[in-house]
Design brief:
Elements (H helix, E strand, L loop, with lengths): L1 E3 L3 H13 L48 E12 L8 E14 L6 E12 L5 E11 L12 E8 L2 E6 L2 H10 L10 H8 L8 H22 L6 E9 L9 E9 L2 E7 L5 E10 L51 H6 L2 E6 L4 E6 L10
Antiparallel strand pairs: 1-3, 2-5, 2-8, 3-4, 4-5, 6-13, 7-9, 7-12, 8-11, 9-10, 10-11
Helix pairs in contact: 1-2
Length: about 375
Amino acid sequence: MKDYTSPTPSRLLRTMLLDVFGGRGKNVGGASYLIPGYHLVYFPPNTSLSSLLHDNTDPLHSPGPPFNRRMWAGGDIKFDDMIRLRAGEMKCQESIVDVEIKGNEGAERVFVTIQRYISSRKQEGSIVENRTLVFMRDEPRAADDAVIFRKGKKRTAQFYHTLTPSPALLFRFSALTFNAHRIHLDQGYCRDVEGYRNLLVHGPLSLVLMLQFLQILLTNEGQEREGKSDTITHVNYRCLAPLYAEEQLKVCIRKKSPHRWQTWIERPDGGMAVRGTVRTAPPPRPGVRREVQSAASSTGEREEPSLGTNGVSLHHTPEVDRPASSTHGAVSPEAANSGTKSESVEEISSTGEGELSADDAEVART
């Protein structure tokens, strides 16, 4: 596939996210380079209206009937330098690298993993993405009833940002990604056919929210050091439970080491809907390409990323017994006008008790 390194899709996504984060992030990236995560609004499915399935999804990776319901399960992305946005072409090589069937007979789910290798025409940077889609039978289910929370280890956020996604936000992200899936756009279809109580937030949008919030923090850190900020080199994430339009969600981040971050999104009940691990690195020296380590070992199992020893902690708060405090920011005029309420808090104690069962990967979202 080919697309053009036009800054327009990135600029539109950035404009949308400025409202979502209450005006924060004006200094993130810029018009020159593709910000990590922004590649998701490039290389849309090139399918005609007449070829869309009954739920308005494209048929490109579908295993076919009866597995007609598509959801987004998670993924893994490695960023090798940044792709420059200028007149020219980007290339995307896409292939299906794994198909796995899970579940008992009659309730099977088909997990399809697609790999995308994205590079600029001059090979100045590249992105390797593995995204997993899950296909289920047509029978609707009570989505929330399928998510069984158990009490687990409390995860404390050093930084969080709350927002309420509006239908307009979902529509704009659908438009940017050329995604007509009805679960993001048609409330009646969500309720009456799929069994959800409202429009669902896109899985890729939840990833963009986590990466954008981390980019804001990294940019602030770079400004405090009076130098260039670290860049995102790798993210691994899983979608665990639905997120709904018009319901508040909380984007949370915790720094585990100088170059390793935990990020997750909580639902209004405190349950964890998305979780991920992000690695960062100092910007490479001019003319030196950065090597991005694979997240999989030779046996195919996940391994912990190797961690650097240098770097500066970003407002790191030691884990000590202290009362939780918060300072909620006011809703920005832009956010109020867009229908997306947002507020930010830094360095507070937020507990998300929503650890999921061992089968949580199968409770995928859109």
